Task: structure prediction
Amino acid sequence: MDLTLIWAALIALGLFIYVALDGFDLGVGIIFPFFPDDRERDRMMHTLAPVWDGNETWLVFGGAALYAAFPVVYAAVLPALYLPLILMLACLILRGVSFEVRGKATRTKNVWSLAFTLGSAGAAFFQGIALGAYLQGIPVVNGSFAGDTFFWLTPFSLLTGLGLMSTYALLGACWLAMKTDGDLQLRLHQFIGPLTIVLLLFMIAVSVWTPLSDAQVARRWFAAPMFYRLLPVPFAVAAVAALMLVSTRRRHERAPFALALVLVALGYVGLLVSVWPYAIPDSVTLWDAAAPASTQAFTLVGAVIVVPVILVYTAAGYWVFRHKTPADANYH
Result:
């Protein structure tokens, strides 16, 4: 049993769950400015109230798991991405504060609405920046970061930052279309189609840019048998996007959100293939970055206990609040 692969799979799963869950509630903040009516904004935030805190559990799990299972990555990547990660956390704090204060504010309600939007958009953008910098490769020497302070600020990382914002915006619109009704739901459906097209454009741009800028990625992508395994992915993305447009046109309520998650999963598979088998692209493999087997085995016992608990209480929360959020809901 390869403990390194098990831990890599756990961290990859946790990251995907985080993107899927916290992605839609950040996305709600990103599309907030397009819905200026305070009553609609209140309802949008009430759809998030029961679940948004729990969604961020997976971010904490990912950081703790990385520290336990891949300390070389933790020691090299965090210093490299210190600034974008600190800015991301600052945005998450701003967003969390604005979420609570806005519900009680009167004269300053618009200020806190703006803070909610800026916090949500900023967190998504800096997560995308960190992702782009990671994909481009982090200079590592003797297990330590060896680049300059702003190595992460590149045209590619700016592209991935905007791309992740569009991903979260689509998830947020689909979530709200599932949780609301009436005129608000109708206008949300009108958002989903354009956002799907924007996301497709970003996916194409990243998919073209990545192999063109990295010869090792190009070799992995286009060498058999990997090429034949990846070949169905673009067709699957096109098919899912087409289904998304059809389901939106027919005003389906739950299908757009499910299809958006499938789109995210397909893009995520492409990213995983791009970096495999590296923990730090083109620099440190998973096995070179892994903790000793005894450490992995010891911490895996804890993960086997903790991960099911997180899954159960997360699922329970969504099940209890599975119905639509009424217009007169009042979280505060």
Summary: The first strand starts at residue 140 and ends at 141. Strands lie at 140-141, 144-145, 278-280, 284-285. Residues 19-320 form one domain. The CA atoms of residues 31 and 265 lie 22 Å apart.
